[in-house]
């Protein structure tokens, strides 16, 4: 009926082709008639569907056996006929191109919108668009896919470039690794060859060392023989063993006073003779103190204190510091008092020692010199250069006319203060000589070295009389006991303290462990019954030599550098890296 109605409407318009306005009016009139027809038909179909649904429900309720019914989501609604395609084909065959051009925008504008809303409200199923709408959707999706494809293509190109660059870098690093590995293997081979070469030289080095030691011994013997030839009077005195030795020596000394220039031809005119060894009774032993009390504590320097020494007769303390200055302090019962400040070294100070008469002071430092200070005038009166490296310490002979010093150049020197020249150079140690000291009232000299050995020297002959081997670490200090019982003490960088009998240098008589940090200095009490040890762990230890009982005192938080007893042995003074002086009294 619809087709007949449309055919009849368009056939009636055939005779009136020339009048376009009438044709368009008639066309829209038929379109509205078709819309009203479609709406009536849809209402009728919806009523029929409702009736069929009620009848189906009634039948299902009457039948006892329940049959599975498809769900509403599975029901496919009836698809309406594509009227726009029919009209478009009809207008094209009829040659109504202008009408077709007007029809298409109107249809796809208001008519298509109205039809879409009608179909969506009428049917509950999925809306199926027409071919043009579907084509437009597909074109949009295609454009989206093309854009994403272009973006992915760009990402792939960038990833490809990164991959190529990474491959090149990997190849470069492989070549570098191969080159480094080859260089490493070559260096290992060279190192092995050098080790073999060095091992081949070790026998030669040992032979050269033996020859060097033999040459030193020969030199010492030649020097002794030379002195004996140049001084026939002294040689005659040494060879004579008759009971009249004392009388003949007195006569010769009287003759020497008449002609003093005869003996001074071979030596320096101001050289002094070594005195005859003499000993005095040691001081009485003080009681063993169980407790120590800190009586005085004050800051002497801003920088670390390297060494302290006590005046021979007075409670005056000398300090040497890394600030290139020395200071004298008077230790009073209620405090301290600064007496003198001396500056003359061009580098840090490492050691200080009072002259036996207390009027002079010797210092050593990093400027490789030994300086003598006149305390009454408050200035340096003598500078003794001669060491090739920094000097570590010094010690006066008991008579005060000789001064011994030690240095990092592996030597110790004996200086004559009258002639102001070096009398002896002691060479034996294979490393830096860290300390030197004279045995009280004797010509014996003791040195400690970083080669883990101690050496005892006869200062008159310049010969080593004994060697002490027992330390496993570099020795930092050594000292004689003032009691004169041939006891000496030494310490090393591991904190091990050895007590030795100078008559039996093979093995130590006792060992005290003050480690694991270094022991910097040891000092005997005047009676030789107590030994003070300055340690880098900030603890001052007082050891009873006979019993081995140790008392620990809190010396300095940064480490104790130097220590000394007073004249009676009743108090001990220590100095630390924090520049603080502490005095402990025994109780």
TrEMBL record:
Native source organism of the sequence: Gasterosteus aculeatus aculeatus (three-spined stickleback)
WD repeat locations: 298-331, 342-383, 384-425, 426-467, 553-587
UniProt key word Transcription regulation: no
Pfam assignment, any one: WD40
Extent of Polar residues compositional bias: 245-259
GO BP, one annotated term: axoneme assembly
Gene3D superfamilies assigned to the protein according to its UniProt record, in alphabetical order: YVTN repeat-like/Quinoprotein amine dehydrogenase
Chain residue ranges for the region called Disordered: 232-279
CDD domains given in the database record: WD40
One Gene Ontology cellular component: axonemal central apparatus
Name recorded for this polypeptide: Sperm associated antigen 16
Matching InterPro entries: WD-F-box_domain-protein, WD40/YVTN_repeat-like_dom_sf, WD40_PAC1, WD40_repeat_CS, WD40_repeat_dom_sf, WD40_rpt
The entry's keywords: Repeat, WD repeat
Tagged with keyword Transmembrane: no
Higher taxonomy: Eukaryota, Metazoa, Chordata, Craniata, Vertebrata
Domain of life: Eukaryota
